[in-house]
Specification:
8 helices; binds S-adenosylmethionine
Length: 250
């Protein structure tokens, strides 16, 4: 199979939002086909890892078509979800799914950027980002924003693709990711570049130990990266720092 031509990993908001707007109508279908349905399991692991109360408020950054929000509510894992994304067409699909699920009272989607979150400081119990952080032009700024909006001790879960390290699997996966996925993606989405950008952006994303450092530098504590499905995906977990207690008795 001939190689798919290389694609730029430039991540300006206009380019990234334009790309997701263009593939929005086929995005969910492609997720199911290309991951053989495992994507739902990955999201459910991330939601469960937060360990939130059923009345908690979750902020889902880079929410796309609202799959995390809907799964979290279907599992009764949280009380309310606010989703943020800058691609209007992805949000429009999400709004349709939320209405169909009867969740409009508990899930709100906002148009906004991960590097300037539309939420007040210390107001949410949990933050999730599923397959979005590698697309953010300045992920370190987004990490600072996430720690800012979390209440003290609030929990973070980020899902992002990785590169499996098991030798045989790594070769097979690279072949699938570089040759099969871009072709199937182009065929179903009708978009020439988006599904070539996907493997390119995964290769361009820092390895787990480096991204954990970015989270620590933003102020997160207890940062961990757990490989899922043999390292095809990593689940990053972290906790916002506790409130600073000032001793006024002295
Ligand atoms: C691969 S999709 C993931 C969508 C969803 N979280 C899911 O699990 O299916 C990535 C999403 O991130 C959004 N995105 C990327 N960079 C962003 C940014 N800086 N601010 C807001 N949304 C962003 C894109 O518009 C897109 O909807």
């Amino acid at each position: 199979m001939s190689a798919v031509p290389p694609v730029s990993v430039e991540k300006s908001p206009d380019r990234i939002s334009g790309m997701f707007d263009a593939i929005a109508p086929r995005y969910d279908l492609l997720n199911r086909v290309l991951s053989a349905g495992i994507d739902r399991y990955w999201r459910s692991r991330a939601i469960r890892s937060l360990g939130l109360r059923s009345d908690a408020v979750l902020l889902d950054v880079c929410c796309g078509t609202a799959d995390v929000a809907l799964q979290a509510r279907a599992a009764d894992a949280v009380g309310r979800v606010v989703g943020v994304d800058f691609a209007g067409a992805m949000l429009a699909i999400g709004h349709g799914k939320i209405a169909q699920a009867g969740e409009a009272g508990r899930i709100t989607l906002l148009r906004g950027d991960a590097t300037s979150l539309p939420a007040a400081s210390g107001t949410v119990d949990g933050v999730t980002v599923a397959f979005g952080i590698r697309n953010v032009e300045r992920p370190e700024v987004a990490c600072h924003e996430m720690v800012r909006v979390l209440r003290p001790g609030g929990r973070l879960a980020i899902l992002e693709f990785g590169e499996p390290r098991l030798p045989g699997l790594a070769v097979l996966y690279r072949w699938y990711f570089r040759h099969v996925l871009p072709r199937v993606g182009r065929l179903i989405s009708g978009h020439g570049v988006a599904y070539s950008y996907l493997p390119a952006s995964v290769s361009n994303f820092p390895p787990p130990e480096v991204f954990c450092q970015t989270l620590r530098a933003a102020g997160f504590l207890d940062v961990r990266a757990v490989p899922l499905t043999l390292g095809i995906v990593y689940l990053y977990m972290a906790t916002a720092p506790p409130a600073v207690v000032t001793d006024v008795s002295r």
